[in-house]
Amino acid sequence: MLKEAKKILKEIYGYDDFRDGQIGIIESVLLRKDTLGIVATGGGKSVCYQIPALIFPGITLIVSPLISLMKDQVDALKILGINAAYLNSSLTSLEFSEVMKNIKKRTIKILYVSPERLNSEYFIRFIKGVKIGFLAIDEAHCISHWGHDFRKSYLEIPKFIENIGQKIPILALTATATPEVKTDIVEKLKMKTPDIYVDGFDRSNIFFKVEREKEPLGYIVNYLKSHKNRSGIIYASTRKEVDSLYSYLKLKGYDIEKYHAGMEDKERIKAQERFVKDEVGVVIATNAFGMGIDKSNVRFVIHRNIPKDLESYYQEVGRVGRDGAPGEAILLYFEDDENIQKYFIENNSELTEELKKNKFKKLDQMIEYAYVESCYREYILQYFGDKKIRSYCGNCNNCSKIKDVENYTIEAQMVFSCIGRSKESVGVSSLVNILLGKLDSKLEKRGVQNFTTFGIMKNKNRDWLEEFIVFLISEEYLLQSAGSFPVILLTKKAYDVVKNVKRVVRRNGEKTSYDYYESPLFKKLLELRKKIALKENVAPYIIFSDLTLLELSEKKPSTRWEMLKIRGVGNQKFNNYGEGFLKIINKNTEVKLNYDEKKLEQLKEVLGLECDILELDRTIKDILF
Ligand code: ADP
Ligand code: ZN
After folding, report:
1. 195 shares its domain with 210
2. Ligand 1: which residue has its CA nearest to atom 27?
3. CB of 198 closer than 8 Å to CB of 38
4. Does some domain include residue 288?
5. Which of 128, 170, 285, 623 is the residue whose CA sits 20 to 30 A from 62?
6. Residue 610 domain-assigned?
7. Quick check: is 329 in a domain?
């Protein structure tokens, strides 16, 4: 059955493999076992219930706490060609009976229901006669007092299961769960010896940073200045703080929105919608904002004030980079800010003394985070009891400060020599093949197997090499040419390395990414995505994620077949939108990259490329033998 699940993942969702955290959960559900899945925000929870729902006969029910989230999910499913619907208070009675009719006709596979609806007499009577695959409970931590979003109606779920009188497995999903919350979920939902999965908690694409005692307004303005065109959320802890930051940034001419519970519903909905649809880049908000927003292309979250606990913090910053592309989580910390949180706890009359004590402890742990001098990620993962603890993540501000740089000069020389040998006429994938010693008929015809550099890096793997070449391009040792078949060229910096005048060093574990938001092709793809989204009346990232567009702009597929290999492009999406994107890519592969071709020619002449190839090879031989 896992095979079938994989097939669906590829054909419908356009992804090659499940993420680590997804496999166990899906397998367990397919075996009809009660399952608790703890998956970090952006880890891909939806797929965990949607794919089994498509495999099981009957309808699958998803309990979800937020109306906006349901709509988003149903929109996304419809675009994938899956029949889904939701039942909540936003429906008119006409819409409601339409959904009921479709359930009766067995045309709906996935039904989202708000917890308040579950036990309505009408619904129970109706659903009793329908075969249910299983019941998934999203944001399952809402059932626990210990969690941070307790929702009373969640306690009604076990009664519902009793009421419908069918034996169905339960899948409870949440992004934030401390050990207490975990136990609470299992007990309150009356799950029977559930399989529990806590994998995939780490969000490796988020860069964590704390700035202590920095002048906040200046910091934020500078940040926004250097991160244009990017979607981000700035959280502040009070409405007043949100209002004043909003006014300040507005005055500075920034096009932003604000969001807090003190605003009119209409205003809030508008702000959220403009943000989700990429009409505005940045929103300043209290923690009232974000629950139920699935927007996958949020690139940064800045906290103007310290949040109340790490659960909230991790959930809020978890909104960064759900699409897998890089993003940042920045906490601005000032000692005085704690007082706001302390005040909130102290004056919350609904809390018992015990709960208050618990909240103070959580706040202390949050403050401790701001002072951590080792890896930020490790601190967070440890807090949540994640098993996979490493002492160094390479992608947080502390790690980037403490780790030594590593010398990659020899590796770089090997790559440069190979490019020289091939007379600067190969693209990235051929280059990698030659270095790995892999032949295809095209390469064989060119005689690359006779190069001294053929297979010179066969002890490395393909992913490492591809990433390393991207690093060399981003550091301007290499250039990628324009045209339909971009080839890799050497720059003066590369010659300096070969002559041992320059070393290639790199932070350990550092990942490189292009500033793709500035690439002309990426911008064009964004425009097309926005146009389609407007027509379909959905958020842009539902059409294709940022990561998919990034891959499109990097790999530049030119045919349907090539485009289906890009992550996030499945059959249905290709049929609906693929051609338009291909057209733009094909048109734009002619666009020149921003380097001076003439200068490069002169450089080659001066250095004498032919003789340099020999020199390159000699250098490599000297190093190796
Ligand atoms: P969350 O866990 O926050 O609900 P989502 O279900 O919205 O996360 O998934 C986050 C993103 O990850 C989505 O863009 C989704 O399409 C993508 N995704 C899910 N599963 C995979 C996978 N196996 N490979 C690549 N991307 C995936
Ligand atoms: Zn780290």
Report:
1. no
2. 44
3. yes
4. yes
5. 285
6. no
7. yes
The predicted model gives 529-541 an average pLDDT of: 92
339: domain range?
206-400
Nearest atom (ligand 1) to Cα of 19? 23
So what's the pLDDT on residue 418? 92
Q: How far apart are CA 295 and CA 325, in angstroms?
A: 13
Residues 332 and 240 in one domain: yes
Structure tokens at 74: 């149903």
Is any atom of ligand 1 closer than 6 Å to the C-beta of 201? no
Look up the CATH number of the domain holding residue 570.
1.10.150.80
- What is the distance between the alpha carbons of residues 373 and 8, in angstroms, rounded to a whole number? 44
* Number of domains making up the chain: 4
C-alpha span between 575 and 265 (Å, rounded): 38
Tens digits of per-residue pLDDT, 266-319? 999 999 999 999 999 999 999 989 876 778 899 999 999 999 999 899 989 999
Mean pLDDT of the chain: 86
Whether 297 lines ligand 1, by a CB cut-off of 6 Å, is no
| Ligand 1 geometric centre to CA of 288 (Å) | 23
Residue 318 CA: nearest ligand 1 atom is 3
- Does 15 sit in the ligand 1 pocket, CB within 6 Å? yes
With a 6 Å cutoff on the Cβ, whether 296 touches ligand 1 is yes
CA–centroid distance, residue 22 to ligand 1 (Å):
10
pTM: 0.65
Ligand 1 centroid–CA 347 distance in Å is: 39
Residues 6+ apart with CB under 8 A from 206: 317, 318, 320, 321, 326, 327, 328, 329, 395
Ligand 1 contact via 40 beta carbon (within 6 Å)? no
Q: Which amino acid is at 316?
A: E
Asked, for residue 594, whether it belongs to a domain, the answer is no
> What pLDDT score was predicted for residue 179?
76
Tens digits of residue pLDDT in 9-35: 999 999 988 887 898 899 999 999 999
Both 438 and 391 in a single domain?
no
